[in-house]
Input
Amino acid sequence: MGTEPRQAGLAVVRASQLLFVLAALMAATACDRPVSRTDQALTATGRVTAMSGGAGGASNACFACHGLDGEGDGVSVPRLAGLDAGYLQKQMEDYASGIRPDPVMTAVAKALDDNARRSVVAYYAGLAPRRSNASAIPAPAIWREGDPARGLTACASCHGAGGEGVGRGQPVLAGQPAAYTREQMDRWRAGKRRNDPRAAMTDIARKLTSEEIGALAAWLEQRPASPAPASDAASASAAAAAAGRSAASREGRRLDR
Ligand code: HEC
Ligand code: HEC
Output
């Protein structure tokens, strides 16, 4: 029972994968960093840091908090799997420099040198996020339309219609734990997290009520975790390498496994 629809589904998946592969091949030929042994080595080094904590020692081992598969703890520790490498790299730098202070992550990021940060984020960006069921809850109006009366821009315009993120600067929010999202909004409101370009998030967080933030966070938690633009290890590490440069890494999109 059920094998036929499944096979039909697979055929559809294969056809779309083929298109994806073709697009990826075209992107790869235009890319200045094709898949290479260096990329694989970067990701492998990153995995070691994720499992060991690198120079920071075992208490900084990422997997202990972010989970073996980078899925987070579902409460206060965010998912890293499949997030854009450029975004993750920026966060590590911001934790280390103090413009995104955090009691745990500041120390973790400071203990790693630039190469270690680059490789560990390449590793996490290359992990496939776990998919969950699509949410039945409709997106809150503020997400879709903002609120012109309060000068609020729609969240969707920067984070994508389903919270899937846009480019490397405007992160995936889909599938992040509600408590984590609420905490980030509180920190922006209070001026503790100050790493958003042009203070967009600070302004937005201050205009929202706690009820609105709660509803947005609850909706986001139920969104299926979708792969970030740089969803495979090789393009992810290329993206990490590009993180310091101005060029966006999203052209490096490749089929995930
Ligand atoms: C002791 C637990 C712990 C360890 C170990 C840990 N993290 Fe975290 N991490 C957290 C918590 C908690 C947060 C949320 C902090 C905040 O609110 O800013 C976080 C946030 C992050 C974020 C921000 C994600 C986002 O969506 O903005 C990144 C990136 C990250 N961690 C990477 C790492 C890496 C890489 C390692 C290992 C080198 C690591 N973490 C080790 C607990 C931990
Ligand atoms: C003008 C563009 C813009 C709009 C509109 C916007 N955001 Fe953001 N948001 C950003 C950027 C850029 C970042 C990443 C900042 C950084 O580098 O840490 C961000 C980060 C976040 C984060 C932190 C993610 C993490 O993993 O730590 C949350 C949560 C968030 N936004 C929620 C929202 C919500 C909810 C709305 C709508 C009420 C919204 N944003 C509207 C640009 C925007």
About this structure: Residues 49, 60-62, 64-66, 76-78, 80, 88, 91-92, 102, 104-105, 108, 120, 171, 183 surround heme C (ligand 1) (CB under 6 Å). The mean pLDDT is 80.
